[in-house]
Please model this.
Amino acid sequence: MDQLTRTRSLRERITRLLGPMLNGGREPDLEEVAARLKLPTWTLRRKLAEEGTQFRAILNDTRRDLAMTYIRDTELAFGEIAYLLGFASAQAFQRAFRRWTNQTPGEFRRSQRHSA
Model:
């Protein structure tokens, strides 16, 4: 298990942390994640840069992946999904989802149901 922790990329470790941290209309910030990883903020930024990514990109990717999973695999209302993903409003979630997928959450849900 210790070997797995060492070989897992920092991006993967952050993604695993973000899921439970997202909720209630707020998003976790770099400082919170750095504290959970027991790293100074500047070190976390530097290590992410070495992996060719940034905290904001990981946060957006995590939100997108979770949103797609919630929409596809649950009957949750889009407002509830927005809350679970830390969006301030359902409208902000809908705009972000459209940016990620070029579909509204409703269109995505319908397309997943038809292909199942």
About this structure: DSSP finds eight helices and no strands in the chain.
